[in-house]
Every structure is written in C-alpha cells, then in structure tokens.
Write a structure and sequence with these properties.
single chain; about 500 residues; about 50% helix
Length: about 500
C-alpha cells in the first residue's frame, strides 16, 4: 500500500513545537504502548462572552468573502512573483545561521528564526524577531486578500499529467515556511499586547489550512493540517493573555471541518487510472493479443515509475527490455489472476479462459483495485469512532495483505497505489480534536467569569458545551485538581494534555 511519507513528518514535526522549557509543550513517550503524550501548561483568566457574541471571529463572515483564487495571493505573499531582493536577504540570513552551527557557536536546535517558535510569546527576543519579520513586511496585506477569496486552485489540469504521483509541489512545501512566519508574527503580537492582531493572524492560518485542503493532493491537505495545528497552538497562548476575549464562538464559527478534502479524495479514488492511463481501456470484452501488446507498450513507462516488487529492475533497462520485463511479470501472475476473476469477481470461467494472458492479469488488477479501493473509501461514510471501535481499518489491512499473498502481480499493481486512508482520516480528526480542546479552554474561562474564578467540577457543569473527542465520540477527559485543572484528549498514538492554572 502506498503511504504518504509526509504524513508522519508533518503531524510529528508541526503538530506542536517541541519543548524548550518546562513551560512549553513537553513530549513524553510510553515505550511499551508507543503512546506519545504532549503536555502544555497554561495560566488563564476569566473571560465573558463578547458582546455582540459573534463579534470575535477567526475567519471573515461569508458575506465579506469574494469569488477568486486565493492561491495567487498566497504566492505573492511568499514572494514567488516579486520581492527577490528581500528573499536574498533571508537566504543570506539562513546561510549565516548555518555557518554559526558549522562553527560550533550554536547547536542546530538553536537556529533562528525556528528556535523562536519553540518559545512562549514572552520569551521571544522581540527586537531580533521584529527585525527578521520586517523582511516579510509585504506579506500581511496580501494574506488578507487571500483570506477573502473563497477558492483555491493550482490550475494544474491534472487529467493531462503523465505521472500524477511524481508531480512536484514546491509551492505547497513553501506554505510550511510561510506558516512558521505567521506563527512568529502572531507570538510577537501577543508579546506586544496586540491581541486583536494575534487573533487575525490565527484566523489567517485557519483560512490557509482550509484553502490548502481544497487542492487535489492529500499532501497539500496535510500541510494544511499542520498549519491548523500551529493556529490552534498559538490560540492557546492568546488564551493566557489577560486582555484576551473569550474565543468560544470564534471556534464554533470555523468551517466544519476546517480541513476538508473532497478534491483530494475524489482524485485519489481514481489514481490507478490517472497514473496508468492505458488501464482505462481494460474491460471484459475479448480482444486479441496484439491489442494488448500495444497496451503494454504504452503502459510500460508508467509502470517503470512505480516501486512494484516484481518490476524493480524495469527502470534500469532499455525500453525494449522494460516491455519484455512487464510481459514476463504479467505472465507470471496469470494463474493467480484467473483465480481472482472466477472466485472473487464471480466471472464465468469459460469467458476468463478465452482472454489473452495480459488481458486476464490487467483485468484482475483493475477489478481488485476497485474492490479494495472502495472498501477503504466506504468507511468514510461511517462515524470515525465506530470504525475505530470495530477495527475496520485493521481488518482491511489484513485483507489487503492476504490478497497480495494470494493474487501476486495483479494485487501488486493495485495495492501499490492505494494510499493509507486511515492515516489521512486520523489527521482530519486530530484537527477537530485540537479545536475541541481550545474551545473547552474558552468554555472554562467563561465558567470562571460566572463563578468567581473557580474551575468547574466537571465539564458537565459548563454553561456552554465543550467539544467531544472526534476520535472516540466521547467527551474530553477533565479533572479538577483544586488550583489546577487538566483537559485530556486521547488520539491514536498521541495524547494531548492541557494543564490549566490561574493567572496571577
């Protein structure tokens, strides 16, 4: 099964900044269960609902938004179309930081500006950070223009691309750096008591995450999920500020979900035929061997780009040798393909016997792919907690493994292009849980306002409903420890804990 390697990197490295002091996010790992726990301590103040209640928001109201492609404005803000002189200054700055590392002056984790993103707002060296951000001074106005646009499109015309899984996305990777500068900009605003500016920046991060999820690629949406994590993290730091308004309804008015991937799911569902376009011609109609020789000729370049166990040597051969290797590999899977078509696909054995070898194997590969693909995609129509509770993804993974063992090259052709939808779905649900935990903090701040600064005895005692854990369908865990309170959200492999204390 094809895995998006970027999933782990993004969810791991950008989920929350690593801890630089006892006050920041602290990560621990249970070596037995492999469960990671990330803990943040906050000191919060009571905060009433804003009046009007919906006057504090992260993303502009729909009535304020306009049609248009936000991608153009994001690219402008990242300096793709201009600002070359400024980008040169930033490059020189980064080179100088690398030299400091190479000369032993600092450790790699002390490299600026990234080390500032591991600091709480009041720890950041403001003069240095503001000087760095001045090189990005053109960004805010362009970001505001991007946020107002409803659409997001790279205008790639993917239907005509020869190898979609090899498509390069340098602009999407640049969003990660862009978002880090936004996070730094937000923390500087908090440190300078510009709370309204900080809230606007967080809203821009949420909007960026929402826009990226409209792209055709899961990778783009996962970058969006990482940016969403940064926004939620910085919003918690705003909650510590004594002048911070209550943001409960700001969370509630976010798009539901913020990271929604209809384009990526629709595109991914057809990835086999987008990557190996000649397979669109495969059908149950009996066709002569010569026809399939031409299909193999046109199919070979696409197969050479894939890591298929039986064809690993293809990319190192001449075109003629590549084609021969493909024919040989397909021939080796003929018996298994016949078995699948008759026993699993329910086809007439006489009809299957009448097919040329190549048609038999390719037809089995297509049918097997469509079967397993839809077994994955149908699960998204069920509530995530029910899927997790019944272990449906694990059962499907077992079935895929069995098919690979039983049906040889036909299964390899199909399963090599199946993405791990469980990992994608986990990333989506974690976005929702981070929002739920932030919203719970705001509901507690309201309770404190209504109850002389006291923490609630339980989340049931709140006047506004806290969010649920979308991965379990249950309420977030909560414990009142007297002078402190703890909110916990358990996810697969990750547990988030926010320890709340009272501001002085």
């Amino acid at each position: 099964m094809r895995l998006l390697l970027i999933t782990g990197a993004l969810v791991g490295s950008l989920l929350f900044p690593s801890a630089s002091s006892a006050e920041d996010w602290v990560t621990s790992r249970d070596e037995v269960t492999n469960q990671t726990t990330q803990t943040l301590t906050l000191r919060i103040s009571p905060a009433a609902e804003p009046r009007p209640a919906l006057s504090v928001r992260f993303i502009p109201d729909e009535s304020q938004r306009v049609d248009g492609n936000s991608m153009v404005h994001y690219l402008k803000a990242m300096g793709f179309f201009e600002q070359n002189a400024t980008r040169q200054k930033i490059t020189e700055y980064n080179i100088a930081e690398n030299e400091r590392i190479n000369n032993g002056e600092i450790e790699p984790e002390q490299r600026r500006p990234y080390v500032w993103l591991e600091m709480r707002p009041n720890e950041i060296p403001l003069d240095e950070a503001k000087a760095y951000l001045r090189w990005h001074a053109w960004q805010p106005s362009m970001i505001r223009e991007a946020v107002l646009r409803r659409g997001f499109s790279g205008e790639r015309n993917m239907a005509t691309v020869d190898s979609p899984i090899s498509y390069l996305l340098p602009e999407i990777q640049s969003f990660r750096e862009f978002a880090r500068m936004q996070s730094l900009r937000c923390r500087v605003a908090i440190a300078e008591d510009r709370v309204d500016d900080a809230i606007e920046i967080i809203g821009q991060q949420f909007a960026m995450a929402h826009h990226l999820a409209q792209d055709e690629f899961f990778v783009s949406a996962l970058v969006g999920a990482a940016i969403h994590a940064m926004a939620c993290n910085d919003a918690l730091y705003i909650s510590e500020h004594p002048d911070a308004p209550n943001m409960f309804w700001a969370y509630a008015m976010l798009p539901n979900p913020v990271v929604n991937m209809p384009q990526a799911y629709a595109w991914e569902r057809e990835i086999l035929y987008a990557q190996l376009k000649p397979l669109k011609e495969v059908s149950e109609e009996v066709r002569p061997a010569g026809y399939w020789s031409d299909v193999v000729r046109r199919l070979t370049p696409g197969l050479a780009s894939l890591e298929i166990e039986g064809l690993n040597f293809v990319g190192r051969a001449s075109p003629d040798a590549q084609q021969l290797a493909v024919v040989t590999a397909l021939g080796s899977g003929y018996s298994q393909a016949k078995t699948y078509l008759v026993e699993e696909a329910g086809m007439d054995s006489g009809l299957v016997e009448s097919y040329p070898t190549v048609q038999t194997v390719l037809l089995a590969a297509c049918k097997l792919y469509e079967e397993l693909r839809d077994e994955q995609f149908k699960l998204r129509r069920l509530p995530y907690p029910e899927v997790a509770k019944r272990g449906l993804f694990r059962k499907l993974d077992k079935r895929i493994g069995e098919y690979n063992q039983r049906y040889g090259v036909s299964a390899e052709l199909a399963t090599v292009l199946l993405v791990s939808l469980e990992a994608i779905w986990n990333a989506e649900q974690r976005c929702k849980m981070r929002e739920a935990m932030g919203q719970a903090v705001e509901a507690i701040r309201l309770h404190m306002h209504e109850n002389d600064g006291a923490f609630p005895g339980s989340l049931d005692g709140l006047s506004l409903p806290p969010g649920i854990n979308p991965l379990t369908g249950a309420a977030l865990d909560y414990e009142n420890l007297g002078g402190r309170a703890v909110i916990t959200g358990d996810a697969r492999f990750i547990t988030y804990r926010i320890i709340l204390g009272k501001a002085n």
